[in-house]
Each structure stands twice: as structure tokens, then as C-alpha cells.
Protein: Thymidylate synthase
Amino acid sequence: MSSNETAYLDLLKHVLENGIKKEDRTGTGTLSTFGYQMRFNLQENFPLITTKRIPFRLISSELIWFIKGDTNIKFLLEHNNNIWNEWAFKKWIESSEYTGPDMTNFGLRSQQDEQFNRLYEEQIDLFKSRILNDADFSRKYGELGNVYGKQWREWKTSNGNTIDQLKEVIDSIKKNPDSRRLIVSAWSPEDIPNMALPPCHTLFQFYVADNKLSCQLYQRSADIFLGIPFNIASYALLTHMIAHECGLEVGEFIHTLGDAHIYLNHIDQIKTQLSREPKQMPTLHLNKNITSIFDFEVSDIEIQDYNPHPTIKAPVAV
Structure:
């Protein structure tokens, strides 16, 4: 069994056994612990979980969306990526322009009421179609506010300028790899009220030693079953991409969690996952002809030899 997969499975077990029941903003309820750290050796393999299928295409397209500084779900929908839909849809149904059926608390209601779920699916399909085909609607209701990509690429300053944090940190890795300031922050208190979802993965730092690039992420809020496998793979991929541009090997990805929680409606799914025997983790291949992370497209990123256990479905808490 790969130590990379063990690190994640140990987190699941830890929170199941030690988590405290807490309420949360979604009304779902959680088992929660505060403060946890995992380490992943990127030299060993690519840490894409095998005890359930993780859709890597969604991870790579979302990361490219972040890197581009984009904050509109249109790019994601064009790549058949639906992981941010619910937050944009919530903005639409709560607007004065929405005149469709009552979608209040659609996240929980769609799980509990089959008839409502069919109505919800109809409305979200109509919403996605308008985002893709109506430019004015997309500009207004596809926007999520100044979420991750905006902070990474256009951090607002007090004098009205912007800072391209991601570009600056890559330049610093190349010019001053021993710096202790190789940091990108997504947490801007001024922008929090206008974000569809305040950043869960809030700050990451790079470290260069022995010609290897390592990355540590601090994540304030961690949905362990659905979100964390995506976050692990996403930041491992980002580390590979930046190492590729900077002519470095990869080292470790270190994942530090604040509120690490299991939603109460994910417990059965987690028990299913823990009953499975992990398989060999895959390998990552990047297009060697790409020399800048800002030029990567989804087709330039490939996972090979990924043969996981089947998907385990679970509802998203919105």
C-alpha cells in the first residue's frame, strides 16, 4: 500500500474515531477535529486516491481555471466541469430576476425529495445552458466574485494596483530559491463578503532543497470525503507544474488542515471506502514542450495507469 494513500485513509479514520459533532452553515452537521497534517511524497507517485475514483479531468481543468485568474464558471462548463455550479446557481435563484419554482435550500431538499430533485435538475440544466449561450447572463450570474484565481493573479492593493502573486512566486523560486517568502494567499478579508464561497485552501508556501520543490498548503475548512482528495491532487499537480517550469524535481506536498470535518451524510460512504484495499497510485505526465504554467491546457496534462475502485457518490453541502 502506498504511504500517500495511507496518509489520507488515516485522516478518515482519525475523524471518524475522534471527531466532535458540530453544526455548520449548511445545516447538515459534521464530525469535526481541529488541526491535522498529512505528508505526500511526490517522488513516490502521484497522490490520486484509488479507494474510490477521483475524476482527474475536473481537477486539472479547475486548476487551469485558477491559474488563468478566471472567476466565471463558463470556462468550467465548457470543459464539462460542474463542481462550482451550485454556488453560482444559488446566486441566480436568490436574485430578483429569478421567477422559477422555489429552490430554497436546494442542496438538502434535492437529497430528500425525489420530485423536487427532478425539478432542481431541470432548473440547473436551464441555468447552465444560459451561462454557456447568453453572454450577458453569464457575466452577471456565472461570476463567483474574487475567488481563488483572482487572488492568485490580481490581488488588490490599497493604492489601486494589483499583484500577480503566482507569477511573482515562480520568479522568486527561479531567482531566490532559498527565500522563506515563497507564499501565495487567497484569503483577502476585504473580498470575503463578495465571494460565492470564501477560500477553503487559503495559503500555500513553496520550499526548495536538494533541487526539489515542495509545497505546503494551509486549508481552513476541509470536507474530508468530497473535497480533500481533490485538494491533494490539485496542489500536487500545481507543484509538478511549477517544478517543471523552474527546472526542479518534485519533493513533498504537505497538507495542513484547520477544521477537518466529515459531513454526517457521508459516514456510510466513508465506511465503504475504508473497507476497500488501496491500489497502485498513478503517474503524471506533463507536455514537455510547455515551458510556462500559464500556457498549459487540459490536453497537456495526463494521468497514466490509474485503475481505482468505483466512484462513491455523496451529496455536496452548499
